[in-house]
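User: Can you predict the 3D structure for this chain?
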Amino acid sequence: MKICSAHWSALRTAIDERGLSSFVSKDGETAVRTLTAALQGTDGKDAFDPLLQANFAIWSNALESFGPDITKEDAPCPLCAMDNHAATCAEGGCKNETGADWIKFAADEQLENARQMGLLGKPN
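Assistant: Here is the predicted structure, written as C-alpha cells:
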C-alpha cells in the first residue's frame, strides 16, 4: 500500500512548489513525532507535515473511490489507479479526475492549511 515513486516525486514537487518543503519531516523519526502530535490534537508547526497530510488525503480519496481493495499488497498506486480509471472513463465520453488532479488538490489543501495556521501567508 504505497504511492509509486513517480507519483510520490510529483507530490513532493507539488508541496515544494507551494513553499511548504520546510514543514516536511526530514526523517522517519521526525515524521512519527509530527504525526503523534497531530493525532494528540496539537496545533501548529509541531503537528504539520504537508507531505504526510497530502498523502493521507490521497489515501482517503482512494479508499472512498476504490474501496478497501486499494490497500492490498498487490494493488496499484492509488494515483495510477485514478489515471487508469480516468482513461477508461474518457473512452466512454465522460471527464474524470486524474492522479495529477489529486496531487494538485492535496497540495493546495496543505497550502491553505498552512495559511489557516498562520504558518505561511494569509488564509484565502
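Residues 59 and 80 are 12 Å apart (CA to CA). The first helix runs from residue 5 to 17.
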